[in-house]
Amino acid sequence: MKLICCMIVVLALFWFLSKKTKNPDVGLYIGSIVLALVSVLVPSKSLPAPLSYFFVQILQRGVLAGALFIWVMVASVWPKGEIKTVTMKMRAQMAICASLLTIIHNFSYGKKYFVLLFTGAKMLPYQVIATCFSLIMILLLIPLTVTSFKSVRKKMKPKFWKKLQSLSYIFYGLLFAHIVMIFSGPIRMGKVSYIFDVLVYAIIYIAYLVLRIKKYPAKKMRYIALICGIILLAAYSCSGLFSAQKVNQTNQTEATQAKEASGYKDGSYEGKGMGNNGNIEVRVTVEGGKIKNIEVTKEVDDEEYCNDAEKCVLPAIIEKQSPDVDTVSGSTYSSKGLIDAVTDALSKAK
């Protein structure tokens, strides 16, 4: 739903600019850069809830950039009419703005996952695949973006420019594959909204492929075949992940069995445990010899996994008065990190 809303807003904005302004390019690019800088430099928690939602859920997660890229992709195959006129006229500007906004997404998530990938740290298979796709897309996006500027395009031979821009088909295919990989994690956790999101992307891509196939000469069908191959690879990889990563509900912490609650000394204790992307830190408060409160002071895993793990694991520990609880399906590593962190903190309360 967020994607559809963004596509509508983007279309309305660029329609207005194409009709009411003579040269909106500079303003669009500066605006995109400002949004990128604010999103990266200003802590989202310090902003009002609506702005925080916009910067985190729309900008940092790449939804707005994705909406722009989709309009760039479908512009050439859209049926004749006002929408096609606007999108074709503003296509280059859309592509450049999308590329600038992609900086937000890559910085927000790349600073974690790129580091994990190159340091050989523990990552889930779908995260490795999605991160690799991101790196390839960045390499493709650099020449595609630079040559989208009118001043650069004018200096290039038309034939070479068109050949270079054909790399965009590979980019579009990888974009869909990347999205499928990213959403596969929450889908495994039973989050139905992500299934709907994947279906929306799939419908858009299938419609694009059908329209593109009708329009493209047979000799150029290799690009379409390449996109289809990438999409099929994404679907196959996703199905493999679903079957391979069934979570063991009986997974227990490696720490020794915790002492009875009456053995804990009153006070506040801090502990660490290894999550999916690094150490998770907690503060455990003991009152009257019992675990009174558990506060997560440092999160390193993705929001979806942290939230699910915290909602289930922490209340279970307090209720049982022991870290000897089960992990959460779909959030195994985050759950285990929390359990180990609490165990570490309680070891200091003996």
Question: What is the topological layout?
Answer:
Layout: H1 2-20, H2 25-41, H3 49-60, H4 63-74, H5 82-89, H6 91-119, H7 125-146, H8 150-153, H9 158-165, H10 167-188, H11 192-215, H12 221-244, E1 267-274, E2 279-287, E3 290-298, H13 303-320, H14 332-347
Antiparallel strand pairs: 1-2, 2-3
Helix pairs in contact: 1-4, 1-5, 2-3, 2-6, 4-6, 4-10, 6-7, 7-10, 10-11, 10-12, 13-14
Strand count, sense and barrel status of the largest sheet are: 3 strands, antiparallel
Strand tally, please?
Answer: 3
Helix content: 55-70%
Order of helices and strands: HHHHHHHHHHHHEEEHH
- Give the quaternary arrangement of the chains: single chain
**Regions with pLDDT < 50 over 5+ consecutive residues?**
240-262
Question: How many whole angstroms does the radius of gyration measure?
Answer: 24 Å
Global mean pLDDT? 79
Count the domains: 2
The total count of helices amounts to 14
Note the gap between the termini: 50 Å
Helix/strand-derived category reads mainly alpha
Strand order of the largest sheet: 1-2-3
Percentage of residues in strands: 5-15%
Shape: elongated
What does this structure look like?
This protein is mainly alpha-helical. It folds into two domains: 2-244, no CATH class; 261-347, Sufe protein. Chain: A, CATH 3.90.1010.20. 67% of the residues lie in helices and 7% in strands. The chain has 14 helices and three strands. It has helices spanning 2-20, 25-41, 49-60, 63-74, 82-89, 91-119, 125-146, 150-153, 158-165, 167-188, 192-215, 221-244, 303-320, 332-347, and strands at 267-274, 279-287, 290-298. The protein has a three-stranded antiparallel beta sheet with strand order 1-2-3. Strand 1 and strand 2 (279-287) form a beta hairpin. Helix 10 (167-188) packs antiparallel against helix 11 (192-215) and helix 13 packs across helix 14. The protein is elongated. The N and C termini lie far apart (50 Å). Mean pLDDT is 79; it is low at 240-262.
